[in-house]
Amino acid sequence: MLGPGEEAFVIRFKGVVRAYRNRCPHRGLELDWQEGRFFDDKGKALVCSVHGARYDPADGSCLGGPCLGRSLEALVCREQGGVVMVEEGRP
Ligand code: FES
Predict the structure, then answer these.
(1) Domain range for 23
(2) Which end of the chain has the least Cβ crowding within 10 Å, N or C?
(3) Which CATH number does the domain housing residue 64 bear?
(4) Is a pLDDT exceeding 90 seen at residue 51?
């Protein structure tokens, strides 16, 4: 569940919509210094702009950097009729 002032973000990766809490597990900061920019230049990893942690867009697991062994918090997300809905709970 998102607390007051907390944000989530939604991505589409390989055709599938996914949602994550916008909080890097390394230091608990938001990933995007540039509002709404989460992917690396190749579009293959989510990157925390603070210290460069890299996450797998498919499941939020750390691919490298100071987040090793941790994951982004995935949120329940579904797409229906072109509308994306993010719900409380874990997928
Ligand atoms: S806060 Fe994200 S890598 Fe350090």
Answers:
(1) 8-87
(2) N
(3) 2.102.10.10
(4) yes
Please give the model's pTM, rounded to 2 decimal places: 0.91
Count of structural domains within the chain? 1
In-domain check, residue 2: no
Ligand 1 atom closest to the CA of 67, numbered from 1: 3
Judged against a pLDDT cut of 80, whether residue 88 lies above it is answered with no
Distance CA 39, CA 47 (A): 6
Per-residue pLDDT band at 75 (split at 50, 70, 90): very high
Which residue CA neighbors atom 4 of ligand 1 most closely?
A: 51
CA of 86 to the centre of ligand 1 (A): 24
Residue showing tokens 């230049």: 41
